[in-house]
Predict the 3D structure of the following.
Amino acid sequence: MVDVLSFPSSLLLSPAPAPAPAPFKPRLCPLPPPLRRRFYPKPSPLLSLPFSLPCFPRQPVHCSSSSSSSSMPFQLSSSSQLHDSLSYSRAYWVTKTIIAWNVDIEDGSCYLYASEIAALSVTDDGIQGQDVEIKLEEDSSGLPPHVIEKFPHIRNYRAFKVPSALNAKNLLKCQLAVAAFNSHGKCSNATGLQLPGMLDELFSYDGPLGALYSAEAVSLYLWAPTAQAVYAHIYKDPVGGSPLEIIPLKETNGVWTTKGPKSWEGCYYMYEVSVYHPSTLRIEKCYANDPYARGLSSDGRRTLFVNLDTDDLKPEGWDELADKKLDILSFSDTSIYELHIRDFSANDNTVYPDFRGGYMAFTLQDSAGMLHLKKISNAGITHIHLLPTFQFAGVDDEKENWKYVDSKILEKLPPDSAEQQEQITAIQDDDAYNWGYNPVLWGVPKGSYASDPNGPCRIIEFRKMIQALNHIGLRIVLDVVYNHLHASGPFDKDSVLDKIVPGYYLRRNMDGFIENSTCVNNTASEHYMVERLVIDDLLNWAINYKVDGFRFDLMGHIMKRTMVKAKDVLCSLTKERDGVDGSRIYIYGEGWDFGEVAKNGRGINASQFNICGTGIGSFNDRIRDAMLGGSPFGQPLQQGFITGLLLEPNGHDHGTKAVEEAMLASAKDHIQVGMAANLRDFVLTDCEGKERKGSEVLSYGGTPVAYALCPTETVNYVSAHDNETLFDIVSLKTPKEISVEERCRINHFATSIIALSQGIPFFHAGDELLRSKSLDRDSYNSGDWFNRLDFTFNSNNWGVGLPPKQKNDKSWPLIQPRLADPSFKPRRSHILAAIENFTNVLRIRYSSPLFRLRTANAIQQRVRFHNTGPSWVPGVIVLSIEDGTKGVPGLSQLDPMWVLNNVYLLLLLLY
């Protein structure tokens, strides 16, 4: 039997087109609830009820409680908690017929409530303000397997049956809540609902989205199934002025559409979306960009109508670029150089002032920076990994708004002074610098890197940058940040997705609040339309900008299914149909397993151990930590294999000599596993003299070191944009009394291990320049001053002041004496030697295919480590790579140019 109370016709029937809204005025308090009345409607398209419906009296509220995050049913303990309970969304509408809620109603009852104007409230007299009240029945069999698979974190929740006759589509546009009542009719619990399960079931959509262009018209498509009304505001200019027109969109099954004239091209638009927002418990009028925007005005104020296929937006030869790219026969031939766009040229005086720090700096073939890129490209670097290039927050797109410090004044200050960082941090939110890991819109190039942030300029210049780098033999990897968004809520100017379908795109915890384990506003790729948006965005960059790879920030927060689907879709792209060869697009990312997704908490995520076997790469932090010592989050003086553990002590207490010997031997095992591409099944002799697979070699926490099934699933690195630079961490961890020449040699030793390892080598821009950030461990917002790259090689940027206090002050006592000591600073001759050493090792890597073996089987057959077991000589790694002989049974010959007993023998000596 179904109870329905006070069911308005607007929820029973498809809504008529909404009238033009009044000017927006934010509500400061809830609307007064309407009078309650009960009636029994006739059967309708949304609800067929062949039953008589009894009425249930409601009594004053009495409450009890326990924790909502527990597997035990949640109860409220006080009247005040109950009154605030709709601020939470602790129940899940997971399928059309099931609501999951962690509450025990025993002999009581449970009801679903809806209010079209968001007037629900909880008082001592019960739930008020509803238009709809529907009785739910508990299903004693619990949640079905397919629901648990999609929502594993609520596997122990109770299942409540929603009447199968109910057509819920219009209810999803309302404020929704459920309430539990005891056997005496007293309310014991109430909460809002999380809706992604229902939205996926009823509104998953694979049709067009965004702006589509034909010869005669422009069509708009917006997926917004919970919206009550949507309008497009059309503007002539990028900022200011009144709209040329305000167009209502028509909804069909959750997709809002309209068609306009061809003259819209070159204009701008914004969406006005009237929608219930769980963060305010109100129907809000939100103003947002198109989630599928392909152009923007400055700072993302409006979306640009722009057809990326227009010839005027293509540099000369653009359509033929796929045929001009460096040919990569195998992903094993890849080597990656990580670079920030602004770092590359902001301080390069050989670049036109208007081009410095932007896309166009890469088009100047004879600049100091481009000559350096040509040098490392000729040595073997194949891919440039660009830090975020999409529209991000934190840097104003309008250059005239940037603030600067006087670098000439800073240059006169002592190398260990705190004054530099004080001046930098005073303007750090108003200058031109940020790494960019705070996404606003994924599908549009960042405006601050363009000569003009309005109109199509950023599109043209981004394409010219790609083309220029391809012409010198470098493929392009984009750093994509799909795991979180910078802003949320109905009012933040940088909020987009959370204005269009509130509560859907962002992952929420069991109380209904946004998860922030990535740093802020985690996204939820386990939801169908989030996954679709990610894949559509990848296709946009691959097809419209011809990029060659993607590095996924915090990839472990994305579902494995999403990553595999993305890889398959990209791989299907062809030159003939799409203008790109998708089989040459390499994907890798950070497979860290933490937060709410850890241990498959929200489904099978793309963590290091889960992603193996897919051909998708993940960063190998094991080799980094074994080489440097400790971890980026541990004791800064803890030493590792290359920084002096046991052999060159720095005074830090690592334990007894026996402990240090064991640590060093274990570190060598970790490095050797990494040099064998961190393969799970690679067998080697460990420090105890035992034959072990890579997965049987354990880290200090007992986690297996190895996880990869093929070499291209391992990205080996010792430094990246995060944490201290390689030279800085070497300078911090090694004894203060060693010479700068020794530190330079250790820097080279580290990059050599990475360059000569099987798998994909990855280098941070400046590893080869002895780059310093004055020991800044997190320079994401430290300005040009601490992030400087000098391609004249006169300075490595060491000793430019104490690094910013916010992230580094705890280490200042360690940092200050090192910066003050002039013997720590390398000279130009040291930098030039480091570059020469780096390029020479790269040439060795590319001199023979034996250094770039393509299969796990080939590595197991050919790679051997010597100087192993308990009698090893500390500080020495000995590796051999065996080749076969033509015409001789056994191993095939891979390198006919090399004959020296058919073996490469490498001695990597630290001391």
